[in-house]
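The freezer alarm interrupted the setup, so I double-checked each line after restarting. Inputs confirmed:
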Amino acid sequence: MSKARMSPLRSSFVHLALAAYTVIALFPVVLTIFNSFKDKNAIFRTPLALPTTETFSLVGYTTVLKQGDFIGYFQNSLIVTVVSIFFALLFGAMAAFALSEYRFRGNTLMGLYLAIGIMIPIRLGTVAILQGMVAAGLVNTLTALILVYTAQGLPLAIFILSEFMRTVSDDLKNAGRIDGLSEYAIFFRLVLPLVRPAMATVAVFTMIPIWNDLWFPLILAPGEATKTVTLGSQVFIGQFVTNWNAVLAALSLAILPVLVLYVIFSRQLIRGITAGAVK
Amino acid sequence: MSDATFSDDDMKVPKRGTRWHILVFLAPAFIVYSAVMILPLIETLRLSLFNTVDGQPAFVGLDNFQVLFGNERWAADFWRALKNNFVFFAIHMLIQNPLGIALAAMLSIPKLRLATFYRTAIFMPTILSFVIVGFIWKLILSPIWGITPFFMDLVGLKSLFGPWLGKPGSALITVSLISVWQNVGIPMMLIYAALLNIPDEVIEAAECDGITGWSQFWKIKLPLILPAIGMVSILTFVGNFNAFDLIYTVQGALAGPDGSTDILGTLLYRTFFGFQLQLGDRSMGATIATVMFLIILAGVSLYLFGIQRRVRRYQF
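Predicted 3D structure, all chains:
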């Protein structure tokens, strides 16, 4: 296959444009992280310079760690995200298996019902969700958030996983049946291991909106003990708005774990988007 | 679920009787999804038809909507939020999506060096939370720090700088552009995937006919990625009419200055949860949520039945 070659002029124009936008995308984040390591004078006098030995300062970080319970916030976010993803994947995979493996009356209808949530945001039911959580005594608990995020993650998980489960070979499952495996064993021991890559994709997709959500923590769990990182940094920065060291340090602390995860999983994530998203 | 009964020819398993495992597989997802998502949604729609009359909840029909659309206390806020929301959406459609298509078109050039790096870097803001993005841009645009005036000075435009987020005339556009900066990765990736799916034979055939460069993009590729563009548009629509976090972070719950950045999401939050002196009003909150639901439903239906079916799909 030979493509028509691009002229060098056109090629360098493309690189210029892409590099320029890359700078626009990265600059604000890089600027924040650099300045979080400087003292107050340097932040204002030379905002664009790297921190040097003279201007290096961790005063922002010490303020943040002393004043805000960021470790606790991280713990909350981690618990909520991991547990919600676990249940969304487990329940989602089970439902996807039922929908893709068995033919029964109401199959299509059930599939459509479970797909409503892909397009209709769960936020629109907040008024009644709050009411229900108050009635169940779950306000200001992580359980409330876990329930909401599990429900939020299910539709997309079911949709993507059932597409993948259709590709698992019938012969394999029937061989298992002849060997006397129960339907549960076929699901947990044969099918689940085979769709693991798809589950990883779904997990990454589901994780980002859960970790970043501000709406539900703000409404369902605003208490100090249950604050997530997103809400915690929102409140913290709101209070310390004039302390630039603390604000920049808090922002960097909130960015870093996400950034590290992104660098590790970006291939998986991007492959996931480019493989199945557009049909 | 009595659905789990079947006719014989449908059976894959040669067992008779109810296949309980189907029920077991479906039940957890069905229960959580129904209890936490669908039933609250229905209950919210129902609540919009009720209000407190003389201390008792009473059915009031469409009165809440009449109040929202016509009452002097509510109507001005509601129509302003609706208008702002459409402006917010329009800016995304006019800037975010064309920009995403342009970036994707450049990234999909075959054998482009550094393409993976560009792709990863440009998508990065999309994974950050609105809270982080909101505060970072607040700092950068702040006249106190002086980053933005410095850069505008470099290109000789310093006189045009102003506290954009603080002026009612420019605040909404500024917030929308921040949101565009964050979310441009999504259209870029989806369009990029669609461009990669175009088979080489089609491109080669075009090249044999002497169609290259710009005209190749406009005449060959763009028609082939129209379904992806349709999908990006509906995702943008749903996301924009459901937005809240960024405006809450940058401009606060009152969506200042002077309510100029108020959209339906922030109006819903203030109305039903209350803010400062304003008490929460569950019925009116449910009413606004219902209006948002109807808007999103109308958009999604228009997409599913009007656009998605008409757009010509090419099978390769």
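Quick read of the result. Chain A touches chain B through 100 residues (CB under 8 Å).
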